[in-house]
Amino acid sequence: MNEVVKLTAKDWASDQEVRWCPGCGDYAVLKAVQRTMPDLGTAREKTVFVSGIGCSSRFPYYMASYGFHTIHGRAPAVATGVKLANPELDVWIITGDGDALSIGGNHTMHLLRRNLDCQLLLFNNEIYGLTKGQYSPTSRIGTRTPSTPFGSVDRPANPCSFALGAGARFIARAIDVHKSLPDVLKDAHGHRGASFVEIFQNCVVYNDDVFASFTAKEFAADRQLWLTQGEKMLFGGGTKGISFDRERMVLTIVDAADSGVLVHDRKNRTLAQLLIEMPATAGFPVALGVIYEDPAPTFESAVLDQNRTIAAGKKPDLQALVAKGQSWQVEKEPRAE
């Protein structure tokens, strides 16, 4: 009997030189994924990383597994083909805020509504880093870039709101350097269906510290709300909680001892929407961890079931298929004597 060898993080690291800007948050995400993979119990030869275009999309080169570095915004389409061709494969999609929400917005939407069984990690740095700092769909109003020298006037997209509206059945948020990122990745992998994970990722060159208001150590306790299923929504070192004002129909901040502190329920879609769009002002924290999870049948399972039903009791006959419908046969003319 062959002994099962336990893989390590190093076993998941390829021999390619990792090339991102020094201090880029992508390094932290890469290490978190490599550390997480051994705990998932999946084999490298049955794992596929698919990416589009952007800084984050170099990711497949650095994983010792199969991978595709595809074209701008089309990673979801390629990943769908991979999963349909071999549903046993463990498929991961690596994308950025520009790749997934701009040119790839259409593909991302359909992947989520179809509920393909995969993990989509969206690295959100609110900038197009690969094109030297152009503003992206998630850049904030007033962001000054080479393409918006006087400040962006675009209303930024909210990745998790987009995912929820597209019909995603698993939505989570995490921070590139936070210790809880591996736990979020494990939850995403454990979900059967499309798992959407927004990762706040710092671009040290073109948008440094854009998330510092809630990621910096001195602000973390008051500005981060890490959600746990079945537990109260507490933050501020356990001194504050999130409640719901039934008269105004909005979330409010209360004392942790208040009886109205909400308990997290991943299946509550309405609550998920409120948490995703919780205001970034008035002392509210940023909701992190698994925000929403409500499993549903996957796209590839529906396709395979349909194919089996159609094929039931039929025998393959290529010639009959070719001759079906409008067809004709070219007869060879007799050779003139």
The assigned CATH architecture of the domain at 10-210 is 3-Layer(aba) Sandwich
**Full CATH superfamily name of the domain at 10-210:** Thiamin diphosphate (ThDP)-binding fold, Pyr/PP domains
Structural class, judged by helices and strands? alpha/beta
What kind of assembly state do the chains in view correspond to?
Answer: single chain
- What's the total helix number? 11
The percent range for strand residues is 15-25%
Shape: globular
Most strands sheet: 8 strands, mixed
Compute the average pLDDT.
95
**Element pattern in H and E:** HEEHEHHEHEHEHHEEEEHEHH
Keywords:
337 residues, Rossmann fold, eight-stranded mixed sheet, 11 strands, 29% helix, globular
Could you walk me through the main structural features you see in this protein, from its secondary elements to its overall organization?
It contains eleven helices and eleven strands. It is α/β, with parallel strands linked by helices and 337 residues long. The chain has a domain at 10-210: Thiamin diphosphate (ThDP)-binding fold, Pyr/PP domains (Rossmann fold, 3-Layer(aba) Sandwich), CATH 3.40.50. The strands form two sheets. The chain has an eight-stranded mixed sheet, with helices on both faces. Strands 8-9-10 form a three-stranded antiparallel sheet. A hairpin with a 4-residue loop joins strand 9 (240-245) and strand 10. Helix 1 (25-40) crosses helix 6.
